[in-house]
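---------- Forwarded message ----------

FYI, see the Cytochrome c oxidase subunit 5A, mitochondrial record below. Original note from H. follows.
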Amino acid sequence: MGPPSPPEPEQIQLVSAPKDPAQVRALQVQQDKAGPHKEIYPYVIQELRPTLNELGISTLEELGLDKVHY
């Protein structure tokens, strides 16, 4: 079995309220599903970028949630 296919951008549906916890969680799920295939999540963000910008949604990296903070 090969690496998982990245989801099509239209498969990822985010709610429209900016900075909603559900939006953050949806992006976290996509990042987690990519697992060891680190090239998939950047591809998903690249494909979603116009929609994220239009809706005012920040990525995990922009929110500082991409790293574990102790």
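H. also flagged this: The radius of gyration is 12 Å.
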